[in-house]
Every structure is written in C-alpha cells, then in structure tokens.
Design a protein that fits this description.
The chain has 160 residues and is of the alpha+beta class. The chain is built from three helices and seven strands.
C-alpha cells in the first residue's frame, strides 16, 4: 500500500470527524423539526374539527388516492355522513361527504361522477362505508398513519 494513500485516508478520516463535530446538533435539530411537524399536524386537525362543529357539522376527509395512508389531506364540513369508497377495479380510495344522513357503519355500492382519465373516463365505483359518529370518522387508523410516517422517516435516516 502506498504511503500517500494512507495519508489521504487519515486526512479524509479527520475531515469526516470535523464535519460530524460541526453537525453534531443536526440529529437534535431533525428531532425538533419532526416534533414541530407532528404538533402542527395535530393542531391544524383540531382547529379544523372545531370550525365545523361550531356550524353543527362534522369534519370529514375529502381526497382521492391509491391507499388509505395517502388519503388524509382534504377537509370538508358535512351535515350528512362521511364516507370511504374503495374502487378495487381501479385501485382507488375516495373519501368525502354525502349530504343525506346515512346509517352509521352502513355500506352501499355507489358510482361517483368522477371520470378516471387513465381508465378511458370510467367512473369511480365501489363499496362506500358511511360513518356519522365523530369528526374525521373516515380516517385511517392512527396506528397505521403513524407507522407509515415513521417508516418513511426511518427510511430517510437509513439512506443518509
């Protein structure tokens, strides 16, 4: 082995140690950023639910996605019932609100007037599960949502 390559390896090692010392707080900073994000998410959800309940309505998620975890974004205030529709044929989840009161925990097969551009304008069709019990009753379970979130965070940390 060449003495120049040994010197270069030692110098690179010292540089890496210096960078680690300078960025030693970055792990703590990442934790605070993550904590701030979770707190902001919880506060915004609570504020949205409060705004709907002052009007005598419930809060529902309204979104369209490929799976339950990635369909937690939109918000609508609802006088009727929240629903989750699963279109197995097109692999789509739709969440939203209907104005009429549906029985809590009931299910109906429905076709929505939502054309899918990737499926020759076919409409979303599937089993709709209704709920009226509480705000955001059409959400994904918290365990599933946080498991997905922390899996993504862990993957990013491993990649780095």
């Amino acid at each position: 082995m060449n003495s120049n390559s040994v010197d270069e390896d030692e110098e690179n090692g010292r540089k890496e140690e210096a960078v680690e010392e300078e960025c030693g707080g970055s792990g703590v900073m990442r934790f605070y950023i993550l904590l701030s994000f979770v707190a902001a998410f919880c506060i915004s959800e609570a504020m949205a639910a409060t705004n709907c309940s002052t009007k005598g309505e419930i809060s529902c998620y309204s979104c369209m996605g490929r799976d339950m975890e990635n369909c937690q974004s939109g918000l609508t205030c609802c006088k009727g019932a929240c629903f989750k529709l699963e279109d197995i044929k097109h692999n789509v989840i739709v969440k939203g609100c209907v104005n009429n009161r549906e029985e809590d925990a009931s299910m109906k097969v429905r076709e929505l007037n939502v054309p899918l551009y990737w499926a020759n304008k076919e409409k979303v069709k599937g089993e709709s599960f209704f709920c009226t019990g509480k705000d955001f009753c059409n959400e994904t379970s918290r365990v599933s949502l946080f498991a997905s979130f922390f899996s993504a965070v862990l993957a990013v940390m491993i990649i780095r």
